[in-house]
Write a structure and sequence with these properties.
Helix content of chain A: under 10%
Helix content of chain B: under 10%
Number of strands of chain A: 11
Radius of gyration of chain B: 13 Å
Number of helices of chain B: 0
Shape of chain B: globular
Largest sheet of chain B: 7 strands, mixed
Shape of chain A: globular
Largest interface: A-B, 23 and 24 residues
Strand content of chain B: over 45%
Low-confidence stretches of chain A: none
Low-confidence stretches of chain B: none
Mean pLDDT of chain A: 95
Oligomer: heterodimer
Distance between the termini of chain B: 37 Å
Order of helices and strands of chain B: EEEEEEEEEEE
Chain lengths: 111, 114
């Protein structure tokens, strides 16, 4: 994998549902994987920075896992709320020493 | 809570004109960045800056672009002679460290080149 890819591109869930989405990134020359939450008309907000294979991080109802050997990360949201509606971006930081972003997953949580 | 600020929020310019986008990073951060997002495309890295010099730059960051930290607080991106394809949202970010630290983003400047 040469690029950072995210799936799905967009997602609609009902309030209270749990959901997850995927980020794939180049596993070679990998240093860190960033997840950002980006609400419309606001700045991207950092959620997690993950570095080690098997890392799991949690912030409230949001958690993420990292597999550096196969080059993927999952972001989970438990019990989605309307305020979780945003675009979730992942970005890989590697030996090129620059963040390479995916296209994002646009999440809409319906009340 | 400290935040990254950017001015102006929207800049309209004629093709061939010079523009300067301004950013005030978080005060104790050491690394500064510029990114851009062309409408409908991914966020792209332009340049990183540390210790008063460019640390890394992408292929996009050609001779038309320059960055400067003119004083202790501002961080600027200059585009010397704008092209239509420079129209994009430009984001500034800053971080305490380079590899393992989260980056804090500003709200962006929307640049429209006519």
């Amino acid at each position: 994998i040469l690029n950072v890819e995210q799936s799905p591109q967009s997602l609609h869930v009902q309030e209270g549902d749990s959901t997850n989405f995927t980020c794939s990134f180049p596993s070679s020359n990998f240093y860190a994987l960033h997840w950002y939450r980006w609400e419309t008309a606001k700045s991207p907000e950092a959620l997690f920075v993950m570095t080690l294979n098997g890392d799991e991080k949690k912030k409230g109802r949001i958690s993420a896992t990292l597999n550096t050997k196969e080059g993927y990360s999952y972001l989970y949201i438990k019990g989605s709320q309307p305020e979780d509606s945003a675009t979730y971006l992942c970005a890989s930081f590697g030996s090129a020493r620059q963040l390479t972003f995916g296209s994002g997953t646009q999440l809409t949580v319906l009340p | 809570e400290p935040e990254v600020t950017q001015t102006p929020s929207h800049q309209v310019t004629q093709m061939g004109q010079e523009v300067i986008l301004r950013c005030v990073p978080i005060s104790n951060h050491l690394y500064f960045y510029w990114y851009r997002q062309i409408l409908g495309q991914k966020v792209e890295f332009l340049v990183s800056f540390y210790n008063n010099e460019i640390s890394e730059k992408s292929e996009i960051f050609d001779d038309q672009f320059s960055v400067e930290r003119p004083d202790g607080s501002n961080f600027t991106l200059k585009i010397r002679s704008t092209k239509l394809e420079d129209s994009a949202m430009y984001f500034c970010a800053s971080s305490e460290g380079e590899t393992y630290n989260e980056q804090f983003f500003g709200p962006g400047t929307r640049l429209t080149v006519l």
